[in-house]
Design brief:
Chain lengths: 443, 244
């Protein structure tokens, strides 16, 4: 029997910091190494922020060695690989052959299985939907020893439950996805300053038809007339000609890292205000034409390994919500006002609009509307109270919180926001569970 | 395009090295014990760009079969540019359970098999007048320590043999690379607690790939800082080494 090293900190937010038992899977062909009397949960790269990737008292089934490609057709972009293959490995393989991920989250250091289990979205949600919309099929291995091929036409219920199903329906041993054509490694577009939320929504509406990717950074400390000021980025994948014309050369980034955990959070009142001021004022012109390398556009934080350590040993809470399109302006304003009033919040607040494309998963997060994501250093009860107030605003508006990033929402809030939860419950593998499941979904 | 034979192709370091070569369009002949794992690796290397991948599953401790196996690899690939000998086991060494029988069994799998292959491949490469022979040894062979001297002594034999062959064959243009990894996070070491000195199999694979590509011959510590660590350990007084 393989060995189970203890993982002291197993989620990206470092909260909750409960030791985990990790059992590495050696091959996708073997039966699940189930242990009597405890529950199990697939565990990829541990990049979920909250407790959806934790299983305290149970066993994590580590997929990092399930990292084999199985087939790739570079004329159609259809790729089949094991569930533990990372998005970074997929890019390394596919981009030189003219393909990129159809949808990518803000880090490439996640496994494909994990990305499907969280039905991740990216800056192109308005044009491409979630990752689940690009999954052709996968094989699900469950605790009864069955291997079920799942696709929109085969075991469709289990397919829909597993996409965004937080690993609770079984182990994704292998998956087939459709990649998107990418003639270059660069994105071409503009970076545009805006002074408030109305300007943001005007820019967003004007940009969505012509730009595949849009995202904004917002200064969460803006108040009054400058609530929601920030920088809007929009882009399309550049053609090879665009790149040649610009004369840029891909440069390797500096190997930056946060080598040790500082004794307390470096994100605080003293650092937040100057950083945000500088970030907003760094760009002088209203609008600047840009050519971004995919790494700096999609994965700015991947350039600093262990960046989560800057939040100190108490960890961080990431908060991402979406509010429906109908009231998005008023509700966003209320959320930003609440955050600014608290003086908490993070360097990078991400804001964007989701498009109308319906996600295929029963528990998929996105809906048409505006989404906001930011980190909070954990400062004790006041941080949790603030997030409860934000939850109330979101819930009232008919919005929802993203499970992949959550470590604290209430079971009631989850049930209220995810109407297909009852339908999902019957697909949960009886020998699988997670901290999130026990806390929020229940049996 | 390089033609590569790997013995013990399912080992973590061997697989990582093969992935680097696959990107350059190499052809492979993979030998290992587990046919299913070899099949997974073959498919993976093809997706990564390998021109062709042949696999053979077999028991490398059956010494009589090794000359035929080498000839099969030679004729299948049409020549051998790189041969990587990577198979081996790490015993849980406990003084109470070690005896002559299991020590000799261990040496059969971890020395005799490798020595037989090195001898055979030496002849093949001499006949070709070219090639790189890579042998996966370990820093554990640099000094006998109470915790793993049986494993270490097997590796020190391989290191010495390889170093000698490197010097002997240099005038013929044949390279022999003795790789001494330090702590590497692989299936073999899954049970160990990992600290700052640990490298990933993929880091070590990349180092081996670059060393082969640059035509290095002789000893390669992977990562390089192990050369310094082992220098200190080699000259450390016995009363310190006794605790290691």
């Amino acid at each position: 029997m393989a060995v189970s090293p203890n993982l002291p900190r197993a989620s990206w937010g470092n909260y909750p910091a409960e030791p985990q038992e990790l059992q590495l899977l050696r091959t996708r062909h073997a039966p699940l190494p189930l242990r009597d009397g405890v529950s199990h949960l697939p565990y990829g790269q541990g990049r979920s922020y909250g407790d959806s990737c934790l299983n305290t008292g149970g066993v994590l089934l580590g997929t990092s060695a399930l990292d084999h490609f199985i087939a790739f057709d570079d004329t159609t972009g259809v790729l089949t690989c094991e569930g533990g293959v990372t998005l970074a490995a997929i890019i390394d393989l596919a981009l030189p052959r003219g393909w990129f991920l159809p949808v990518t989250p803000g880090t490439k250091f996640v496994s494909l299985g994990g990305a499907i289990a969280n039905d991740v979205h990216g800056k192109n949600h308005h044009s491409a939907g979630t990752l689940g919309a690009h999954v052709v099929s996968f094989e699900l291995l469950t605790s009864d020893g069955q291997r079920r091929p799942c696709s929109p036409s085969e075991n469709a219920g289990l397919f829909a439950a597993t996409i965004g199903g937080l690993g609770l329906t079984g182990l994704i041993t292998q998956a087939t996805i459709r990649l998107a054509p990418a003639p270059s490694a660069f994105l071409k577009g503009q970076s545009i300053k805006f002074g408030n939320l109305d300007e943001f929504f005007a820019l967003s509406e004007a940009s969505v038809p012509d730009y595949a990717y849009t995202v904004s950074w917002i200064d969460c400390l803006g108040t009054g007339a400058s609530i929601g000021r920030g920088i809007f980025m929009r882009a399309n994948i550049a053609s090879a000609d665009d790149v040649v014309a610009s004369g840029v050369k891909p440069r390797a980034g500096l190997p930056l890292a946060v080598p040790i955990m500082p004794p307390l959070s470096l994100v605080n009142q003293l650092t937040l205000r100057p950083f945000n001021w500088a970030y907003y004022n760094r760009q002088q012109a209203e609008q600047v034409d840009k050519l971004w390398h995919y790494n700096s556009f999609h994965y700015p934080l991947d350039a600093i390994s262990h960046w989560n350590r800057i939040y100190g040993p108490k960890g961080l809470l990431q908060y991402q919500c979406v509010v429906p399109r109908a009231d998005e302006r008023a509700v966003s304003r209320a959320l930003f006002a609440e955050i600014a009033k608290s003086g908490q919040g993070s360097f990078l607040v991400v804001f964007k609009t989701f498009g109308p494309r319906v996600s295929p998963g029963l528990l998929s997060f996105p809906m048409e509307g505006a989404t906001l994501a930011l980190d909070f250093p954990i400062r004790g009860a006041s941080t949790f109270a603030l997030l409860d107030r934000l939850d109330a605003i979101v819930s009232e508006a008919g919005g929802r919180i993203y499970a992949a990033k959550d470590a604290r929402m209430s079971a009631g809030a989850f049930l209220h926001a995810y109407p297909r939860l009852e339908e999902f419950r019957k697909f949960i593998d009886p020998r699988f569970s997670s901290n999130f499941e026990r806390r929020v979904i229940g049996k | 395009m390089q033609r590569i034979v790997i013995f013990g192709a399912t080992s973590g370091i061997a697989e990582a090295t093969a992935r680097e070569f696959a990107k350059t369009g190499a052809s492979f002949f993979l030998v290992g014990r587990n046919a299913q794992a070899l099949g997974d690796i073959a498919a993976d290397l093809k997706v990564r760009g390998a021109a062709s991948v042949e696999t053979r599953s077999g028991d490398l401790s059956l010494l009589d079969t090794l000359p035929t196996l080498c000839q099969e690899a030679l004729s299948s690939l049409g020549g051998i540019d790189v041969a990587l000998i990577a198979h081996g086991t790490l015993p849980a060494q406990q003084t109470s359970t070690w005896n002559a029988r299991n020590t000799l069994e261990f040496l059969q799998e971890n020395v005799s098999s490798q020595v037989a292959l090195m001898s055979e491949l030496r002849l093949i490469m001499m006949a070709q007048g070219r090639g790189t022979l890579v042998i996966l040894s370990s820093v554990a062979g640099d000094r006998g320590r109470p915790s793993n001297y049986i494993y270490g002594s097997a590796k020190s034999l391989l290191s010495t043999l390889g170093e000698g062959m490197a010097l002997e064959l240099a005038p013929l243009g044949i390279k022999v690379l003795v790789v001494k990894p330090g702590f590497v996070d692989t299936k073999m070491t899954a049970a160990f607690k990992k600290g700052a000195l640990w490298a990933s199999a993929s880091d070590v694979g990349t180092l081996i790939f670059s060393a082969i590509r640059s035509g290095k011959s002789g000893v390669l510590y992977a990562p390089r800082f192990w050369q310094l660590i082992m220098l200190i350990i080699k000259f450390a007084p016995s009363f310190l080494v006794r605790r290691m």
